[in-house]
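Title: Prediction job returns without error message
Component: structure pipeline
Severity: low
Priority: P3
Assignee: unassigned

Description:
Job completed but the reporter wants confirmation the result is attached to the right record. Sequence as submitted:
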Amino acid sequence: MSRALPKYNKRRVVFIGGAAAVVLSGAVIAGSALAGTPDKSSSAQSARTLADPGTISCPDVKSQLPAVPASAQAEVDRNLTLLDTQIAEANKRLVDTVGQGGANFVQNAILGPLKDKRVSTIDRIAIAIGRQGTKPTGLDSLATCALNTGGTDVGGTETGGTDTGTDTGATDTATPSATASATDAAGGTDTSTAVGTISCPDVKSQLPAVPASAQAEVDRNLALLDTQIAEANKRLVDTVGQGGANFVQNAILGPLADKRVSTIDRIAIAIGRQGTKPSGLDSLAACTLTK
């Protein structure tokens, strides 16, 4: 009995020592696992960053308008509301596309198209006022919007209400050099062929007889339609690989249709001043990507 007792005590010591080692190993493993777990506050901060990509701010147009004739008030108000809608849609797109595209995605897919829409809408406001009074000039300077992230403007500079020149009626008309550049870039290069080309219905062939007094304005806007297609083809080449499956539709074809609607509308208005305003031309605004 006296000889068996030490053996029992020895086994008990070994057992207790082994259990302690297991517990200690478990503590070490748990500590390592906790050390490798991301801090919840960091994850929350990251989520907040993704959920708050910033907001788009644009110069106020209404405050820069002259007195609006009563006969133009409804059309002006409708287009002022449209400007607000365009900003809201751009802010929604900003949230929906977080993380998409490269460094210039916001400028190319959101701010650029928004500016194009605002140019056309602001031009309609100026035309409406000009029918019964003096057409305001310099409003195009209010078209550029900016991305505001934490108090910093990114992707555009608000130009305020500075008068930049005389409004010619088709305010988004490109300069000859810009037109040539866009046309060259969208020509039959290998890159353009690889990404496809944008094709649009022909407007000129669908027009009725054009009064002589409207011919110059109609020709100017027909040339502008060609310029818009050339610029869209250039953007198609410049943004290859950006965005998701709907990038071309959202960033190029959609904005192009908006610009064409406004330009075609100006053509119809010009013809209607001296004759019957043609209807149904808006159906020619939508374009397609051909590969």
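Comment from assignee: result matches the submitted record. The CA atoms of residues 28 and 34 lie 10 Å apart.
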